[in-house]
Amino acid sequence: MEIKEAKIFQDYLNGVITGSETETSKKLFKDARSFYENSDCDLSDDTVMYEVYSYSQGDPKQTGNLNWGLTVMKPVTVNQECNITRGHFHEDLNCAEIYFCLHGEGLLLFMDENDHCYAEKMKTGTVHHIDGHLAHRLVNTGDEELRVGACWPTTAGHDYARIEKNPFKVRIFKENGNIVVKERHS
Ligand code: PAN
Ligand code: ZN
Fold first, then answer.
1. Which portions of the chain are predicted below pLDDT 50?
2. Which of 48, 77, 106, 178 is placed for a possible disulfide with 122 were both Cys, Cβ 3.0 to 4.6 Å?
3. Quick check: CB of 10 below 6 Å from ligand 1?
4. Please, is 29 exposed, middle or buried when counting C-beta atoms within 10 Å of its C-beta (0-12, 13-18, 19+)?
C-alpha cells in the first residue's frame, strides 16, 4: 500500500492553508470601497482587507464535491465601520455552508429573503450553519485578525449581484471601542 503525503496543510491556530493546490485571493481596499457606507478615508487603495484561501478536488460542477476555505479578515475600520466581506447569497439556494471561527472576534451577519437581518457572535471555536437561503457576511469586530474556516459545496456559486441590488439592512461600527449596530429601515 502506498502512503501519500497530504496535499494541503492548515495551521489551524496561527496560520493559513498552504500547499500547491491551494487557491488564494486578496481583497484590496480599492476593490472593497463599495461595501462601506462611507469609504472616503485615509486607507491606501492597496490595503489588504481580507484574504481567502480555498481547496477543492474534482469537477466543481459535480454535485457533492466540496470546497474547504479560510477567510482572514484584517482588523481595520473604514470611518469607524468594521471590516466586512462583500457578502453573498449562494447561486444555488439549496447549498448550505459551515463556518467555524479559528481566531479573533466577529459577527456572522445573515439576511433572509425578506430582508430580515440577524447575527451570530463568533469567537475561537464557534461553529455556524448557514442555511442556503440566507445571505451571509463576516464582520471583524475585534482588534486582531478574524480567521474563519468554511466548508461548502462547489456547486453553490456566489450571487453577489443580489446583495449589491438589495444590500444588508444593518451596518456594524466600532465607536470608542464599543460595537454599535445601525439599522436601516426602508
Ligand atoms: C466564503 C466567502 C469568503 C469571502 O468562502 O466567499 O468569506 O466572502 P465574499 O465571497 O462574500 O467576499 C463563502 O461564504 N463561500 O461560499
Ligand atoms: Zn458562502
1. none
2. 106
3. no
4. buried
| The pLDDT value given to residue 159 | 98
Q: How far is the CA of 178 from the centre of ligand 1 (A)?
A: 26
Q: Which atom from ligand 1 is nearest to the alpha carbon of 160? A: 11
**Choice from 34, 50, 86, 91 to test ligand 1 binding pocket (greatest atom count within 8 A of CB):** 86
Residue 105 within a domain: yes
Q: What is the pLDDT of residue 184?
A: 86
What would the grid cell of residue 128 be? Answer: 455556524
Considering every ligand atom, which ligand is closest to the CA of 148? 1
Element (H, E) at 164: helix 161-165
Q: Identify the CATH number of the domain in which residue 73 sits.
A: 2.60.120.10
For ligand 1, atom 3, the nearest C-alpha belongs to: 71
Evaluate whether residue 106 is within a structural domain: yes
Q: What is the DSSP letter of 136?
A: E
| Nearest ligand to residue 71 Cα | 1
- Domain of 73 in residue numbering reads as 8-183
Asked if residue 128 is part of any domain, the answer here is yes
The closest alpha carbon to 130, from 103, 145, 152, 102, belongs to 152
Beta carbons within 10 angstroms of residue 54's beta carbon: 18
How far is C-alpha 105 from the chain's CA centre?
A: 13
Q: How many domains does the chain have?
A: 1
